[in-house]
Amino acid sequence: MDLPVMPPVKPMLAKSVAAIPPGMQYEAKWDGFRAIVFRDGAEIELGSRTGKPLTRYFPELVEALRERLPQRCVLDGEIVIAREGRLDFDALTERIHPAESRVRTLAERTPASFVAFDLLALDDRSLLEVPLNDRRELLTGALGGVTAPVHLAPATTDAEVARRWFEEFEGAGLDGVIAKPLTLRYRPDERAMFKIKHERTADVVVAGYRFHKSGPVVGSLLLGLYDDQGVLQHVGVSAAFTMKRRAELIEELEPLRMEDAAGHPWAAWSQEAAHETARLPGAPSRWSGKKDLSWVPLRPERVVEVAYDHMENGARFRHTARFRRWRPDRTPDSCTYAQLEEPVRYDLAQILGAPPATPPAT
What we know:
It catalyses: ATP + (deoxyribonucleotide)n-3'-hydroxyl + 5'-phospho-(deoxyribonucleotide)m = (deoxyribonucleotide)n+m + AMP + diphosphate. This is DNA ligase (ATP). The protein has about 350 residues and is an alpha+beta fold. The protein contains seven helices and 20 strands. It has helices at about 60-70, 90-95, 100-110, 130-140, 160-170, 245-255, 350, and strands spanning about 15, 25-30, 35-40, 45, 70-80, 80-85, 85, 115-120, 125, 150, 155, 175-180, 190-195, 200-210, 215-225, 230-240, 295-310, 310, 315, 320-325.
C-alpha cells in the first residue's frame, strides 16, 4: 500500500457542547465503529479509532469497498449494522471475535455497512490541509451514485435541518448531531469538531460498585432498573468522579455493603448461562481483555438520579451515565423501565436513502 495518507491514522474527534452552534456543516452522529478506510487498488485496510486494524472482522465490507470506492482513496466514516430499521451496536460488538468462522457466519447473518463522511486523500493527493467544505465537495464527487452497503452521510449547512435531524434520527438509533466548522482542516486525534447529544435523566438503583484501578476507592457504580417481572437488570455504570468523591462514596456506601453476593439480585453473575437472559455485572467482555471485572455487592436500597444520552435496544445505557444526585425520596422498587422516554421510531432507510445534501458553497 502506497497512499499519500498512510495507516495508522487516528480520526479527528469532537468535543461535547450543549446546543447546535450556528454557521457550520451538520451531520448525524452515527452509533457504530469509527473507521478510516484505506484503499490502494486491490488493497483495503480498515483502521479503528485507536489505529488498530478492523479489517479481519468485516470481510463483507472489504469486498463491497473494493467494488465501490475510487481506486486510491482514504475515507473517514462509521461501520454500522442495522436491524429492523435502526442501528444495532450489539451486533457490531459480536464481530470482535477471534474465530474467523464465527466472523464469516455473522458477516452473512448481519452484514455491516459503511457510512462515509470525510475524505482524507484521493488519488495521489493528501487532503488533510484542505478546508472541510472543499473536502465535502470532493467526497460527494468521489461517491456520487454509490450503492449500499456503502453510503454517503447526509450533510447540511442549515441549522434548522440539523435541529430536525437531532429530534428525528434518534428513533433510528443515532445519538445526536456533529457540527464541523466549514474551514476546518483535518486534525487527526484532535477534538476539533462539536457533538450535540441527547441528555435525559433517570432514577436508578445502586446495587454495587467496582474499585478504581488506583486503589480502594470507587471506580464505578453499578446501576439497575426493575423490569416488568420485578427483576433488577444491570443497565450500566456511573464512573466520572473526582478522587475525593471516589473516597467519599466508599464511606457513604459502606452501610450497604454485603459480605458476599448470596441473596443479591445479581448473585448469578458468575454463572455463564445467566448472562444469556439478563445484563449482569462481571460478564465476560472482548473489549476489556484481562481487566478486573470483580465487583462489591450492595443491598439495592439506594436510588440515584443519573443523566444519560440514550438506551441501547431499550435495555441499558449506551454510554456511561453521569451522577446527578442521591434520591432519598425514591424507593428502589419505583425505579423501573417505565420512566424512560422512548424516542419515536424513524426508519434508517430514510436517512441513508436520502439524496446527498448540496455541498457547502466554497
